[in-house]
Amino acid sequence: MRKPGTLTDTAAATALGPDPDPSTAHATAVARILAGPLTITKRASATHVRSGATVSFAIRVTNQSTTAVHDVSVCDRLPAGLVHVSGGTVRGAEVCWTLRSLASRRSHTFVVLARAVSSRTRAVTNVATVRGRGAGPRSARTTVVVLGPAPTPPPPSVTG
Q1: 50 strand-pairing partners
Q2: Among 125, 95, 100, 91, which residue's Cα sits nearest to residue 110?
Q3: Residue 57 domain-assigned (yes or no)
């Protein structure tokens, strides 16, 4: 992988006879080489969580390139069954963070806390995505099982 920056290639052509327009004998192409990839991993504090309890998600973003990546944005889409409690800025169904810059070979961890809400047991998957200037989107997903509310114990029996 080349370092980010620009690559310039110049070509020249010569005619076998008189050239009616010598200004077209040279061409230059400039290719922009983008910053290297960002990677993202995600883990939940629990694989199963009872409705009403909280679960945290740690999202780790790493810059694998040899130069800084700028304007890094991380968004975690909370699905139905998870409600934002803290961490990041809520934008609709997403919780987002931004970094002005992530240095070469460095990582940053973001944490979101969510409350599980479900009237029945079901698996919910949420997806976090990272983007940066010159670094395309990458995603990571985590699934947790939200357990329905705890069963209500039967009323005590009365004997007479």
Answers
A1: 147
A2: 95
A3: yes
Please state, in angstroms and rounded to a whole number, the distance separating the CA atoms of residues 63 and 40. Answer: 9
What distance in Å separates the CA atoms of residue 111 and residue 38, rounded to the nearest whole number? 18
Structure-block tokens of residue 87: 């961490």
The mean per-residue pLDDT over the stretch 13-38 comes to: 61
Contact at 8 Å (CB) between 143 and 90? no
Return the percentage of the chain with pLDDT > 90, whole number. Answer: 64
Span 101-129, pLDDT tens digits = 999 999 999 999 999 999 899 999 999 99
Measured at the CA of 96, the angle between CA 95 and CA 101, to 5 degrees, comes to: 160
Neighbour-count burial for 18-31, b at 16+ CB within 10 Å, e otherwise: eeeeeeeeeeeeee
pTM recorded for the entire structure: 0.72
What type of residue is 86?
S
Q: How many domains are contained in the chain?
A: 1
**94 occurs within a structural domain:** yes
Domain membership of residue 153 (yes or no) is: no
d(CA 133, CA 153): 55
What one-character DSSP code corresponds to residue 53?
Answer: -
